[in-house]
Amino acid sequence: MASTEIARQAGEGARAVPLSGHVGFDSMPDQLVNKSVNHGFCFNILCIGETGLGKSTLMDTLFNTKFEGDPNQHNQPGVTLKSNTYELQESNVRLKLTVVNTVGFGDQINKDESYKPIVDFIDTQFEAYLQEELKIKRTLHNYHDSRIHACLYFIAPTGHSLKSLDLVTMKKLDSKVNIIPIIAKSDAISKSELAKFKIKITSELVSNGVQIYQFPTDDESVAEINSSMNSHLPFAVVGSTEEVKIGNKMVKARQYPWGTVQVENENHCDFVKLREMLIRVNMEDLREQTHARHYELYRRCKLEEMGFKDTDPDSKPFSLQETYEAKRNEFMGELQKKEEEMRQMFVQRVKEKEAELKEAEKELHEKFDSLKKLHQDEKKKLEEKKKSLDDELNMFKQKKTAAELLLNQAQQAGASTTLKRDKERKNFF
Amino acid sequence: MLPRSSALFIFGSQQQKNLEGYVGFANLPNQVYRKSVKRGFEFTLMVVGESGLGKSTLINSLFLTDLYSPEYPGPSHRIKKTVQVEQSKVLVKEGGVQLLLTIVDTPGFGDAVDNSNCWQPVIDYIDNKFEDYLNAESRVNRRQMPDSRVQCCLYFIAPSGHGLKPLDIEFMKRLHEKVNIIPLIAKADTMTPEECQQFKRQIMREIQEHKIKIYEFPETDDEEEMKFIRKIKDRLPLAVVGSNTIIEVNGKRVRGRQYPWGVAEVENGEHCDFTILRNMLIRTHMQDLKDVTNNVHYENYRSRKLAAVTYNGVDNNKNKGLTKHDTGDGMSPLAQMEEERRDHVAKMKKMEQEMEQVFEMKVKEKLQKLRDSEAELQRRHEQMKKNLEAQHRELEEKRRQHEDERSNWEAQQRIVEQQKLDLSRTLEKNKKKKIF
To answer: Septin-type G domain spans which residues (chain B) (predicted)?
Structure first.
């Protein structure tokens, strides 16, 4: 019996002891299974592919039920993700299945951003789980896991190679989700073309470094079937919900004038292989890989982004408490710094404004000082004018007075001369 | 931060669907089974009780192996001055299933004269294991997380026949919210069935009185199972007998204790409750014990620890229990910091607005003052100008008057002069006349 993980973990420090009878812990797997069955299972599939590749039909065929709505049109402005959750039951097993469809994928002229909504959606589910995991009071065991466990990537049956949109999208997703590429509507390809197509696709994926999901081969009970299936990837599928009578059975098939493609006939397509691998054999592994690999990667990146580290510079491991405390102190320091900065900025502004206003005041005073000076000058001039006028007046007055005096004198002299003359005259006579 | 394109997600509601044919996910339980066997199982069991109560013997009987042996002596043989908490790991395999069993025992418990705080090392051990798991879970790089948390504690009660000792009550009160406690009456073969019944009832009464929460069997929908569980509940606490020796009874080889008056058989349901304990602990409820530890006891520890870190930054959760600091809405410390950041941003915005307002107001005031003084100065200037202008006009007026006067006078003078001239001319003429 191969060594279990637990045995490997135990290492030294655990001694193997023989049992002298039946203890009963071999019921542990059953106890675990009972618990899981009681709790119910949950599985989330993301279907990516251009409009019209038969995504919805394939889901209906895989799960033997009619899922949602009407076929979508080609005129979507961007890629939208539509998610629907269904509760299915098979024998005593309850499954909460969520099917997410990309609507409008590949329909736009510019498909540069097509992958973004998909990546965002996947990240959103991871983020939701991470937030729940980080809560103080959390209920992880009752949490409805919305993380995408499997991504079926629908490749158009051109028969040639992958489109660049396919390569770009798958490259962006391969570290976030388990990608299972499938060739859609493969009844449009002949057998020989199909073999070449599969080889081309696989080599293109390899040369572009796209990591698709490999069925696990470490558990020997399924190693053989898984590794043989791995060699049939990508699966070429045909979906149909219509039934056709073949022999005396009703089978799911597509009827053409030249023959009937039977969905569950392994010579016609790989549908059965897909169903085996996806649902019957590896569903649990897909969930495990999502949690242990893709989610952990997301979580690690997110935490590193936020500045969390596992060891301090001296390589001593941080305890959780220390990490949070350190984060919190850093955070509070940051906030305080911001506050200080804002205050400083205001102080600065006040200073500047004060200086401005002072300048204005100074200018004003200068202006009025100069006006005042002007005014003084005017006044002085006025005074001078006044003075000169006064001088003139005085001069005039003097002149006048002098003239009057002269006149008086002249008059007096004249008067006396006249008198004399008169006297002489008088005397004459 | 969540990505911003959430506007592109459309979620439909949940619907029930019927399958119209074989799908295959009914095989999921098998997948789970297969993976769990591949992984292997682990379980940590703690045994606590005074020395000599048959703890090691019971463990050996439970697991049908010499876990404790002369080379690996049990707790009562390892005399300690103070209570120690020690663990031994064994790997056992059965039916293809591997189990890593860790037995934690407490030599020295209850053996001293003064047993105050002899439970503290036990509490510390359990908390340390929780802490280890919490740290492992919180690392950025998480590997396989070995789970060494104590998943069940078998507490051995001495068969006094009277009731619980104060030490028993104290221990269970302090540990019932940290670990699944299964109280056992040790060495049950020293009591008659009636004594045992009475003792059991007394113990259960005291347990209820002190509100001690011992491990409870989960309810199921299965009627059969529930009936079974109720029968077990009536027999709590389980009275057990252990033995390392095999004795032949009626041709059968059984584990038992040989007395002059007969053999007390370990696995005989009429002699003691050992079989019930074994079936419950190992065969039916081992997984549930692990689940309760993980979902209840560990989560309690974790939320207390994280709440203390978030609010105080100081680990004082050892002294306080759940305080009012326990967030009702259960935010992660990071989400809490986010919220604090948002609050702070809002506060700063408000502060900024207020400061702006004050600033604007002051500026307005100053500007107004400036304008007022400008107006004042302007007014004065105007006045002075007017004044000056008035004086100017006055002066002009005066000048004009003077000019008028002067020109008048000058005109007069000219007339006078002219007159004078005329007169002198006349005189001259007269003079000349006279002469002749």
So the answer is: 39-308
State whether residue B66 sits within 8 Å of chain A by CB: yes
Which chain A residues are Cβ-neighbours of B97 within 8 angstroms? 25-26, 28-29
List, in order, residues 6 or more apart from A204 with CB less than 8 Å away. A161, A162, A167
- Which tens digits make up the pLDDT trace of B133-147? 998 888 888 877 888
* CA pair distance B270, B193, nearest whole angstrom: 9
| Cβ–Cβ under 8 Å, residues A51 and A106 | yes
- Most A CBs within 10 A among B13, B22, B31, hence the mutation to make, goes to B31
- Say how far apart CA A240 and CA A246 lie, in whole Å: 15
B68 touches chain A (CB under 8 A): no
Q: Which residue has the tokens 């589910």?
A: A125
Element (H, E) at A151: strand A150-155
Task: Report d(CA B301, CA B128) in Å as an integer.
Answer: 11
Q: Which of A63, A92, A321, A382 to mutate to test the interface with B (most CBs of B within 10 A)?
A: A321
**pLDDT exceeds 70 at position B330:** no
Question: pLDDT confidence of A323, banded at 50, 70, 90?
Answer: low
Joined together, the tokens standing for residue A37 give 């069955």
With an 8 Å Cβ cutoff, are B25 and A90 in contact? yes
Report in angstroms the alpha-carbon separations of B381 from A366, B283, B391, B427: 13, 109, 15, 66
Instruction: Give the residue from B120, B149, B121, B124 showing the smallest Cα distance to B134.
Output: B149
3-state class (DSSP) for residue A80: strand
Kindly report the backbone phi and psi dihedral angles of residue B104, in degrees, each rounded to the nearest multiple of 5, phi listed first.
Answer: -110, 125
Q: Provide the β-strand partners of residue B252.
A: B249
Give the span between the Cα atoms of A106 and A74, in whole angstroms: 9
Reply yes or no on whether the pLDDT at A127 is more than 80: yes
B positions 333-352 inside 8 Å of A (CB): 333-337, 340-341, 344, 348, 351-352
User: Cα separation of A417 and A73, whole Å?
Assistant: 143
Neighbours of A25 (CB within 10 A): 24
Tell me, yes or no, if B325 comes closer than 8 A to chain A by beta carbon.
no
- Which pLDDT does position A238 carry in this prediction? 92
DSSP assignment letter at A233: P
Cβ-nearest to A88 among B17, B332, B367: B17
Among residues B172, B74, B164, B163, which one has the least CA distance to residue B122?
A: B172
Is the Cβ pair B64, A331 closer than 8 Å?
Answer: no
- φ/ψ of residue A148, rounded to 5: -75, 125
Is residue A226 within 8 A of residue A47, CB to CB? The reply is: no
Rounded distance between C-alpha atoms, residue A420 and residue A166, angstroms: 151
Distances from the Cα of B138 to the Cαs of A25, A419, B132, in angstroms? 31, 148, 10
- The pLDDT value recorded for residue B260 is 93
Cα A278 to chain centroid, rounded = 31
Report CB contact under 8 Å: B26, A90.
yes
B288 reaches A (C-beta below 8 A): yes
Task: Tell me the longest C-alpha to C-alpha distance in chain A.
Answer: 203
Separation of alpha carbons B333 and A326, rounded Å: 12
- CB-CB: which of B141, B294, B363 is closest to A300? B141
Chain B residues with beta carbon closer than 8 angstroms to that of A282: 31
Residue A411 has pLDDT above 50, yes or no: yes
CB-hemisphere CA count at 13 Å for B112? 16
pLDDT value of position B425: 83
Contact B310 A136 (CB under 8 A): yes
Please list every residue in chain B whose beta carbon sits closer than 8 Å to the beta carbon of residue A78.
8
C-alpha distance from B162 to closest chain A C-alpha (Å): 33
Q: What is the ipTM of this complex?
A: 0.74
Amino acid at B403: E
